[in-house]
Amino acid sequence: MSLVERGLPASITLASLLSGAQRPVAGSTDIDLPAYVEEILTGGFPGLRSLRGRAHRAQLDGYLDRGDRDDGTFALIGAIAKSTL
User: Fold this and answer.
1) pTM across the whole model
2) In this predicted model, what pLDDT tens digit does every residue of 23-69 receive, in sequence order?
3) By three-state DSSP, how is residue 53 classified?
4) Which residues contact 56 (CB under 8 A, 6 or more apart)?
5) How far apart, in whole angstroms, are the C-alpha atoms of residue 46 and residue 59?
6) Distance of alpha carbon 64 from alpha carbon 74, whole angstroms
């Protein structure tokens, strides 16, 4: 989910980037750095947004493990993500 889909302010949208308009990418947000990092670590999966702590990590680990098993391209992403949690 994008920041807008999460109900957070954003000045750049995916729709504007994909519209083909050649505009410089610039913007601002009222979100401070700790909140932004929290959004990145929480992830954009709607079903996981309400989970915290161990339950959240377990669900993300399960998602990454399934991706690694089903599609080898997740192996590196999964290893990096797990090392940062």
Assistant:
1) 0.45
2) 676 777 788 888 888 887 777 777 887 888 899 888 888 877 776 55
3) helix
4) 42, 48
5) 12
6) 7
Above 60 in pLDDT, residue 10? Answer: yes
**42 contacts 48 by C-beta, under 8 angstroms:** yes
Give residue limits of the domains in the chain: 45-84
Token reading at 61? 């680990």
How far apart CA 25 and CA 21 sit, in angstroms, is: 11
**Structure tokens, 3:** 């920041």
pLDDT, residue 22, reads: 63
35 in Cβ contact with 73 (< 8 Å): no
CB count in 10 Å sphere of residue 61 = 14
Looking at residue 34, its amino acid is P
> What is the amino acid identity at position 65?
D
